[in-house]
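Standup notes, structure subgroup. Blocker cleared on the SN-glycerol-3-phosphate input:
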Amino acid sequence: MKFFIDTANLSEIKEAYDLGVLDGVTTNPSLMAKEGITGQANILKHYKDICDLVDDNVSAEVISTDFETMVKEGKELAKIDDKIVVKIPMIKDGVKAIKALTDEGIRTNCTLIFNAGQAILAAKAGASFVSPFIGRLDDISSDGMALIEQIVLIYDNYGFETEVLAASLRHTMHLIQCAEAGADVVTCPLNVITGLLKHPLTDIGLEKFLADYKKGNS
Ligand code: G3P
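Run returned:
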């Protein structure tokens, strides 16, 4: 199971990487804007800065919505670094762009997936990753995790090589349930990754071990 961090914040990316468990980064235009990164030159430079912090798998999202411009933009993004995965929205021209970029050997991540039909189309087009948004489905009283299970089953049925990249995770239970469901990748904020560390019995146990050591060695 791969762990991606869903942020454009360089210090959070570095913190997750330094933990030794990070396999990649996902960004989107909202996350870039949150970091105050504006203007095409700054955006491209920021993607390069992210690539320099991690080993592979940096999703960079196109902002165009027509086939020709998406392909052109995708190629420009892919030129930044071999680690770039071009993120394309699940729209008709997006599906065509995924096929075209895949045919040129450029990896893609099909984003804004909210049902199994969209996931099948993305896989048929040759997407490297498909990003179903769990939290946003849960937010509107739909079962985000059921979608992950459904996509994993369908991809297994046909041996699709597209990796299921569970996105829009809100908490650690989402991550654990994704692991149970067989998602290939999760992308989540730093607090969801570090949240996995926590258990009060660990803290109490460590405190007691150290206190007992001190008693015997003072
Ligand atoms: O990057 C895509 C996805 O992870 C967005 O998450 O929290 O904005 O629904 P969120």
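Discussed briefly. Residues 200-216 form the longest helix (17 residues).
Next: hand off to the docking folks.
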